[in-house]
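Before the break, one more example. Copy the sequence into your notebook; we will annotate it together after we see the structure.
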Amino acid sequence: MATQKPATLGAFKKTKPVYESVKDEMRRNLIATIKSGKDLFPGIIGYEKTVVPAITNAILSRHSIILLGLRGQGKTRLIRSLGQFLDEYSPVIEGSPLNCHPLRPGCAYSHRVLRECGDDTPIAWVHRDQRYQEKLATPDVTIPDLIGDLDPIKAAREKRDFSDEEIINYGIIPRTNRGIFAINELPDLQPRIQVGLLNILEENDLQIRGFPVRIPLDLVLVFTANPEDYTNRGNIITPLKDRIDSQIATHYPNTVDESLKITDQEAWAVRNGASSTIPKFYREIVEEVAFVARDSEYIDQSSGVSARVPISILENIISNVERRNLLTKEESSIPRIADLMAAIPSIAGKVELVYEGEREGPRMIAVNVIGRAVEKVFSRYFPEIEKENDLPVKADPIFGKVISHFSNDNGIEVSDDMPFSEYEAALKSVPTLKRIAEQFLKAEDPAETALGMEFVLEGLHQQNLIAKTAIGSMYTYTDMLATMLHNVQGDD
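Here is what the structure looks like once it is written out:
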């Protein structure tokens, strides 16, 4: 049975409590977590050697923190996880607007209740979840919103003088006293509003208008921001930057494996109680899209390519499989290469294009990025294709018969909505294609083998060895040279 917590100041004093600041409380709990060997930030992937040590040092140093990074780098998730280093429950004077600690009253209300009630002062216990608050910085945020203002209506209703501190209507920051307060996208906060945070950061006190009383605050302030060279909506004023103790840079996943883990954790992949069966090479294509986009000269790299891109891509691909199953009345959970085109909306809406990219158009850029991702993964699973002058491509020991099939005026059509039997039959018509998929992709299931066969064709297309044309959702693979000549004749 859980021990009953003291409900009055007198009972609380019998436990021989010692006042501890929020920063010291977080430091104590962090040290205990490190000693226990537990994961400091569960669910945070790829920051184990970079961001996590920096945040750990900041907490141990009792610092205020700003996380600086591009969109989709997990900044909000990180700051929200800081609440785990608060005690599960913290005592406050019941009814205190500033959550004042019984041993350290800060506002007029708390002082008055202590004078009137003494050891009978009622004490409430606040859970750590209630001690974390955050605010998205927007241009319309005001000083009263964040810090507070005098309330003339309250003064009139309660017949209080304007010199009475209890007529103050506190803002969200002082109401988070004895906790953690976070401001997201700090540069969006107007400079004159940022000035209002200076005293809180440096002197840990609160001043409202010309009110003569200083109210001590005990809280941890954390911020997030995009780099100043990206955001054109505003900047962090220099005095405020100077008062934020630790500036920590976040980053995108460094490897495809890290990105895979993030997508697995965040994507909605379980539909109707069942998970999709997606081979590893296909998942790597999905993740590689973001890596390719981060290197693209057509995409504004100062804006960044969010880690949400592969998450949205995977969800759209799974939905396309679900849609196909509804149309064909089949129950396959394995996607097709053609399903990658369903991911175009997930890419086009999440990247900022430079001028050259705008000329090409977001759809064309998305198609090219997907194609490059396929090519990179293809080269990871298959040997390099012979291209020397003394050995024609058609004589390649692995892919030669596939390429020769198309050069003999053969072609196949596949789509993302055709029944599996038609899809498989079209792919099986290409000599050696099935054997290649089984050999290098270790495909055993018929649907996975068919996917591998289509992957081989798409990889050869991306290396300009066979042609591909698209009409709606139908994709036709043909001979590269014949297609080029046909296009030239069409232009003539």
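The chain has three domains: 9-249, 253-381, 387-492. The first strand starts at residue 65 and ends at 68. Try to locate both features in your own notes.
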